[in-house]
Amino acid sequence: MAENRASVYAEGVPCWVDAQLPDVDAGKRFYGGLFGWDFEAAYGSSVWARLDGAPVAALGRKTDGRMPTVWTVSFATPDVEATVRRIRTAGGQVVTAPTPVDGAGVAALAVDPEGAVFGLWQAGDHPGFGVRHRPGAFAWAQLYARDTETANTFYGHLFHEALFGPDAVPDFGRAPVSDVFPEVMPPHFLVHFGVEDCEAALGAVSRLGGRVQAGPFTASYGTVAVVTDNQGASFALLQR
């Protein structure tokens, strides 16, 4: 079922995802074919992906070939400067300092103590997802960590109410890297998009030039397959 966004997502809730790609037009063809997304120009060289008119993601062009081709999840914060201070206190690092984005909001990029990269978003005119928890939209973010206790301590300090509070409905899990990937894989977040039929979606990924990395396998939150797009960005398909 579709879930409409609130005016602003609560602190610590995944509120946006974006992909940094070598070729945005190729990304539009891939994700438009896979999820039925439409696209419109956003800030800078980025485009917003829309599903039935609602914003669900952004695709941006990599400005440095040394940067990874990745999907990044951003967590909502009402005060990005305060969150950045807590990240440093808890043993994380800030990669990109809080930066205003054309009135849409303020973005920052950080890494946790094990090196997993994530974003922060303080909403302005753009609160985040217009729809989630449905096929073709964001469904889950899984952190694959070396030490899940370290991850729980760090993110519990950072986003306690969203993860462990009485009203918590997490969209964010933690698991050991070795559960799915080779042990040499660095800790990282894996963005999941909802699908109605995982096997059918895997066929579409292959037809569109992507490939299957792992699965399908059964997780506590559904049937999951890890794939890459036609430019090497990893993400997951989630059938509830």
Task: Quickly count the domains.
Answer: 1
User: Shape from CA axes?
Assistant: globular
End-to-end distance: 11 Å
Overall pLDDT score: 93
Helix content: 10-25%
CATH class: Alpha Beta
- Read across the widest sheet, the strand sequence of neighbours is 3-4-5-2-6-9-8-7
- SSE pattern, N- to C-terminal: EEHEEEEHEEEEEHHEEHEEE
CATH superfamily membership, which one? 2,3-Dihydroxybiphenyl 1,2-Dioxygenase, domain 1
CATH architectural label: Roll
Question: What characterizes the major β-sheet?
Answer: 8 strands, mixed
Measured by DSSP, the beta-strand proportion falls in 35-45%
E-strand count: 16
CATH topology: 2,3-Dihydroxybiphenyl 1,2-Dioxygenase, domain 1
What oligomeric state is this? single chain
Provide the structure class: alpha+beta
Note the total helix count.
5
Describe it.
It holds the Pfam family Glyoxalase. Residues 13-123 form the VOC domain. This is VOC family protein. The protein is an alpha+beta fold and 240 residues long. The chain has one domain (3-239): 2,3-Dihydroxybiphenyl 1,2-Dioxygenase, domain 1 (Roll), CATH 3.10.180. Helices cover 20% and strands 42% of the residues. It is built from five helices and 16 strands. The strands form three sheets. It has an eight-stranded mixed β-sheet, covered by helices on one side. It is globular. The model is unreliable at 1-7 (pLDDT under 50).
